[in-house]
Design goal:
Among the domains are: 149 residues, no CATH class; 99 residues, no CATH class. It is 37% helix and 17% strand. A nine-stranded mixed β-sheet has the order 3-2-1-4-5-9-8-7-6, sandwiched between helices. Helix 6 packs across helix 12 and helix 12 crosses helix 13.
């Protein structure tokens, strides 16, 4: 009978240890760690994310109870005081860099998006992670509550984040969006919160397409009216030129204005884009699919631990948020490798009760194949 390591040990093999150690040395601060390593910290926090541990004492008890498996995990016993000190003192940027490594790994086996065009499709959005001002006084958001803001660029191919950053709750979405380095030719979808015509010009100059909602107070001049297919829900398809006073002498590019009425709700939408080749109906469908980023925020908040924190400092909070994002990418990578229909949430629920079981990881997360229907034995007598 072949030997099988624990499920958690097999999961950790998806993170090359030598790459992690290089990142750990690069993102180290202060004296050499003696009682706990950054790998120990990662194993403890990853286990906490997958198994729903709520406190440092909880993490310590559960990790130390599995001491016989520490050798295969590459870790040792931990204490809550040592873990708390590393969470507070050692830079969270280690896990931000690990996130970038895991994104590159996920992009290989990730499927393509459901649309016919080949451009990468990315939805841009942000979500507040609320905090208590009494416990996190540094997180003042609006004098009444604290918060940090998670900004994400979601790839519609595998529905996983390819861009992410965490800021204070007051950070404006447009300012953060400007910092993302989208690949040339990609199509970025965003809501009205990212409305900035100057940024739209920069995206156009870089060869990046966008789809967004037009504001009701926008000033423009119609240059061309395109034909609208009947029964498609598209009410208008126009080429426009911005006419605001602040745009004079700025050589603003022409844009496309698409009106669409949703046949299900009857609500009318007006979209703005710099892509002139896609059909108007596809533009509306692309924006509708932006809802996937909202589902991502819902999934990560309901299934991973980014609402109850095991440390109160700024560094400890961001460490836990970035480990949660890395955990989601590991689950996405497993989903891509298995080529099954299970979601990240379902894979996580299966792993949750099998972390220290000695079972083959890929067999565990594979959906049960359909069993062939067999006729009752008595029917074989007629053969």
């Amino acid at each position: 009978m072949s030997h099988t390591n624990t499920v958690l040990s097999q999961l950790l093999k998806l993170v090359p240890r030598h790459e992690f150690q290089l990142l750990a040395r690069e993102h180290h601060k202060g004296q050499r760690l003696r009682k706990i390593s950054r790998w120990n910290q990662f194993v403890g926090l990853l286990m906490a994310q997958l198994s729903g541990r709520q406190s440092l004492r909880d993490i310590e008890a559960n990790m130390n109870a599995q001491e016989k498996h520490h050798y295969h995990l590459g870790c040792c016993r931990i204490s809550k005081s040592s873990l708390a000190r590393v969470n507070e003192k050692q830079p969270y940027t280690l896990y931000e860099a690990l996130f970038a490594k895991l994104v590159a790994r996920c992009q290989g086996p990730a499927p393509k998006h459901k649309f016919r065009f080949k451009n990468p499709l990315i939805s841009l959005d942000s979500s507040l992670i609320e905090l208590s001002l009494k416990l996190f006084p540094w997180s003042d958001h609006n004098r009444h509550k604290g918060a940090v803001k998670l900004h994400v660029g979601l790839d519609h191919g595998g529905h996983f984040p390819v861009f992410a950053t965490v800021t204070d709750g007051r950070a404006h979405d447009v300012r953060v969006g400007r910092e993302f380095n989208f690949p040339r030719g990609s199509l970025v979808v965003m809501d009205k919160g990212y409305n900035d015509y100057g940024w739209y010009k920069q995206l156009t100059d870089k060869g990046i397409f966008f789809v967004t909602r037009q504001r009701t107070n926008a000033r423009y001049r119609v240059i061309e009216r395109r034909k609208v297919p009947k029964g498609s829900g598209v009410s208008s398809d126009q080429v426009i030129e911005l006419t605001g006073v602040k745009f004079k002498g700025q050589d603003m590019p022409q844009m496309r204005r698409v009106g669409y009425r949703d046949p299900e709700t009857g609500k009318h939408y007006v979209f703005l884009t710099n892509h002139f080749e896609l059909s108007a109906k596809t533009i509306a469908a692309v924006y509708k699919d932006r809802w996937q980023v909202e589902l991502f925020f819902k999934a990560i908040k309901q299934n991973l631990k980014i609402h109850a924190f095991v440390g109160n400092s700024y560094n400890a909070v961001l460490t836990q948020v970035w480990v949660a994002l890395c955990t989601y990418l590991l689950l996405s990578y497993l989903k891509f490798l298995s080529k099954g229909r299970w979601s990240e949430q379902r894979i996580m629920h299966v792993l949750q009760t099998n972390l220290f079981a000695k079972r083959d990881l890929m067999t565990l997360i594979q959906p049960n194949p359909p069993t062939e229907s067999r006729s009752p034995p008595q029917f074989s007598l007629w053969a």
